[in-house]
Design goal:
Elements lengths: L3 H17 L3 H17 L1 H9 L3 H10 L3 H15 L3 H9 L6 H7 L6 H11 L13 H10 L5 H15 L5 H6 L2 H11 L1 H14 L3 H8 L6 H7 L5 H15 L3 H9 L2 H11 L2 H22 L13 H46 L8
Helix pairs in contact: 1-2, 2-3, 2-5, 4-5, 5-8, 8-10, 9-10, 9-12, 10-13, 12-13, 12-15, 13-16, 15-16, 16-19, 18-19, 18-20, 19-20
Length: 365
């Protein structure tokens, strides 16, 4: 540990001032020293937490009257939590999340980058067995993400926190109830820098029926997702949008009908030919669904129907049906040909990759 005995003395003095300081200025000085000590040596983070600095820091955060002091306390809590789940858990146990509504009333949330970073740090607890309740955190994150004055960097941080929370299936209902789905969809459509994280979060939510229903019922679905799937220069977003669309289309004739009416088949054909390997795979799978559905609709009607009516209008209707059937069959054949080309293209790209990484000596000729 850096500093040896001097470091230990400095740590003891700072902790004593934090606990028993007679005035705010002394405590603020102690907080600054604790921040410095925590940043200088990872082992000191655990020692400082063991000496009980986290609960008084949380209390100071709520009692501080000016932004400068609040920022210092938040930065210190971030430093203490960085790299140690134990200190993150201690921060939650000290009641920070339960008191977030107080901070939401006093803070200019869309501009509080440090508080957002602290929430991101605490959100990693959702990936552990620690029983964190995300409900107090979610309104704060949604409010920051949805605010027009929030910086791009803060929006990315909020989405990362929401993603962490959504990785635990037990949290999905709380995330959906917080109103996250429309905000995530809107953010992914409007800001490409947050789209990947937002779509990944939506993908997690789709694993639960509650989340899937919330996405299905949003007014901009599936148009927004189809728009994102057309982003050729953003392959990861394209893949994630295709995944969400697949989840929506699976076993849902209503969603497939909406997608077909909006022209998803030509888009899928384009992705199947030009997208990333994973996007192509997902597009081909969806094309297969639409092809089978089209075949089911036209099944049994490929030949002429017996006509027992002499009414001319009835014959016209039958003729129209026959023409429509032939058109659908032709489209089906074209789709099969394009799917075969896409699969061949995918196989060829794999071969090229193999050839590029192999030496000439490994080739048989």
């Amino acid at each position: 540990m850096e500093g040896g005995k001097d470091g230990v003395v400095a740590m003891q003095r700072a902790v004593k001032q934090l606990h028993f300081g007679e005035c705010d200025d002394v405590k603020v000085t102690a907080v600054a020293e604790i921040k410095r000590l925590a940043a200088s040596d990872p082992r000191r983070k655990r020692l400082l937490a063991a000496l009980g600095v986290i609960p008084p820091l949380v209390s100071m955060l709520l009692q501080a009257q000016d932004d400068r002091r609040r920022q210092l306390v938040v930065e210190t809590l971030i430093e203490l939590a960085h790299g140690t789940f134990k200190n993150k858990a201690l921060t939650v146990e000290a009641g920070l999340l339960l008191r977030l509504p107080q901070l939401m009333n006093t803070e200019d949330l869309p501009k509080n980058q440090h508080l957002t970073a602290l929430l991101l740090s605490l959100s990693f607890l959702a990936k552990t067995t620690f029983p964190i309740n995300p409900s107090p955190m979610l309104p704060c994150l949604i409010r920051i993400l949805d605010a027009t004055e929030t910086s791009e960097e803060m929006k990315v941080t909020c989405v990362a926190a929401l993603y962490n929370i959504s990785t635990k299936l037990d949290n999905v209902r709380a995330v959906v109830s917080s109103g996250a789905v429309p905000v995530l969809l809107k953010s992914s459509q409007k800001m490409r820098s947050v789209a990947e994280g937002a779509l990944a979060t939506l993908g997690n939510l789709m694993l639960c029926e509650t989340g899937k229903k919330a996405v299905e019922e949003d007014a901009i679905v599936p148009e927004a997702l189809m728009e994102i799937m057309a982003w050729e220069e953003e392959p990861k977003c394209q893949e994630l949008a295709a995944y969400v669309l697949m989840a929506l289309a699976h076993r849902s004739k209503v969603q497939r009908k909406k997608m077909a009416e909006l022209g998803i088949v030509p888009l899928l054909l384009e992705v199947a030919l030009m997208g990333s390997p994973l996007a192509r795979k997902r597009a081909i799978k969806m094309l297969q669904w639409f092809k089978e559905e089209g075949r089911a609709r036209t099944g049994g009607h490929s030949g002429p129907r017996p006509d027992h009516l002499s009414d001319g209008r009835q014959q016209i209707r039958e003729g129209k049906r026959a023409v429509n059937t032939m058109v659908k069959q032709s489209l089906d054949k074209n789709m099969q040909a394009i799917i075969r080309r896409a699969r061949a293209s995918e196989d060829f790209s794999c071969f090229k990759s193999l050839a590029a990484t192999s030496s000439s000596k490994s080739l048989p000729y």
